[in-house]
Amino acid sequence: KDSPKTSCAVYVNRRLIAQSGDPFQMLKAQGQQTKGSHSVIGPLSLEFYPDSEGNAEIVFFISNYFYRKSGLNDTVYFGPAEAFTNNNYITIYSLICGAMFFIGLLCLFQFIINHQRKEYFYLGITTLALALRIATNGLCLLTIIFPNLPAEIKFKIEYSAMWIVPVCVTQMLDLLYPAKKLRPVKYTFIISELIIGLVNISLPAYYSNRMVSVLQYSMIIVCAYVLVLSVINIFQKKRYSLYNFLSYLFVILGAFIDVLISKGARHFSISLLPFFLIVFFVTQIFMFARIQNDIYVETVETSSKLQRLNEA
Question: Smaller CB count within 10 Å for the chain: N or C?
């Protein structure tokens, strides 16, 4: 029910039943081999029956041209056809992705209206990057729009969130709570993440997907920095620090579980990242609304005081 994430063909009793991408490139003559993507990302489901003796020999013919992990990258599920025609999973994830895209665009429009509110720009970019992460992970919702989405493009889109989000979150935190003494640390993180991101985009997928561990470890370091700084802000009783801490805690928990799943953890039947992200965005937007309201109240009070002073 998920994408095999590589080129493969499935045979049942020596008969080709289903295929993802083109796993037969190496078997073709030299002149017939084509360049470019041979893997296609998308769910691969098939229905089969046993032979006259009640047996079904299932063979997966896998040809992994570029991905760092050999073999199938997802669990093979067996069950009745009804289990694979249930679209609740697709509907829920589509609604979450749609809501995140809407929130991201709304934040960017808010920044366009008021360029001084740079935190909305970084929150918008963060939201769009994470929405693309959800849309390309697991089931890969982008295949609904692009049925023949090449695996190489899919992985580049999916991995982009792992370096874009740490940069944006670090900038958001610094905008709300400027810390001049920590600026060198912040810039070190940002420059390192941008270099890793540019390398990931520039290199062919054969090399860039081998950088996933580097992306994960760098993301963990930035997450630790953000979380520690958020806790310090709470102890210093800075305004809105509790909102910041809770929102970052949820997104870090979601990212941590996502990394565990990618490492092979089988305790989670579905990725919990989208649900943690919804809490993160709601908390962030509520915090920005509080900030906006407090600015308005302070402006009204200052205007009233100025008016009384002029009258005096």
Answer: C
